[in-house]
Automatic annotation (TrEMBL), chain A:
Record's protein name: Cytochrome oxidase
Highest taxon in the source lineage: Archaea
Keywords, alphabetical: Membrane, Transmembrane, Transmembrane helix
Native source species: Halonotius pteroides
Transmembrane segments: 26-47
UniProtKB/TrEMBL annotation, chain B:
Subcellular compartments: Cell envelope
Name used for this protein in its record: Cytochrome C oxidase subunit II
GO cellular component: membrane
Native source species: Halonotius pteroides
Keyword vocabulary terms for this entry: Copper, Metal-binding
Amino acid sequence: MQDGRDMEEEQTVRELSHDEFDPNGTLALIAVYFVILLAMWVFMYFVEFLGNELTVVG
Amino acid sequence: MNIHSYEKIWLVVAILLIVGFISTVTYGATAVGIDMVDDEGGTVNASALDEDPRFSEPRVEQVGDNEYEAYVIAQQYIFNPDPIRVPANSTVTFFITSPDVIHGFEIVGTNANTMVIPGQVAKITVNFNDPGEYGIVCHEYCGSGHHTMEGSVVVQPEDEFEPGGDE
Ligand SMILES: [Cu+2]
C-alpha cells in the first residue's frame, strides 16, 4: 500500500493528442461484438429463417 | 473536423452493416421469393360466412396443375377443415378467416404463419414438397379454450390424394 505522499510524488502528466489516443481494448471488444453480430445475423436469416421450410411465397 | 481513425472505421463498418441487412431482406424478397401477408385476401361478412361462396363450405380445391386453394375457417376452438389434406409437390394458397374473434394460424415449426381476423381474409401461399403431417396452432389468445385450439395439415402422396377436402 502506498500512502498519499508517495502517490503525489509519482504523478506524471502525459499529454496525448487526439490521434495518439488509441483505445485498443475498446476496439478489440467492439470487433468481437461485431463478429458475434455477423455470425448471429447469418445464422438467424439464412439458417433459421430461410431453412425453416414452408415459407410464405405469395 | 478531426475524426479519429477508429471512429472512421466504425462509421464505415456500421454503414456496411446496414447495407448488408437491407440487401439480405431484398435477397429474401426477390431471389427466394418470400412474401409478406397483406390485405390481398379482401374482406368478408364475418357474421354470414355460411352464405359466402368461399367459406360456406371449408375445403381444399384444385385450381391448376399442381395448384390448390384451401378455404379454412378458424373459430373458437377449432380449425375447419381438420385435417386439411393437400397433395405433395403442390402449391397451396390458404384463405383463412374467422366468424368470431381474432385467431392465429401457424403451421407449426415453419414460417407459414398469419393472424386470422374476423371480416378479413388472410391469404398465404405455401409450397408443399414431401408427404407428411404438420400441426396447426392458434397463436392469438381467443378465449378459454385457446390452448386446445389446434388443427393439422396432412400432405398426402400425390397418387393418394383426392380433391374435395373433408371426408
Ligand atoms: Cu383461436
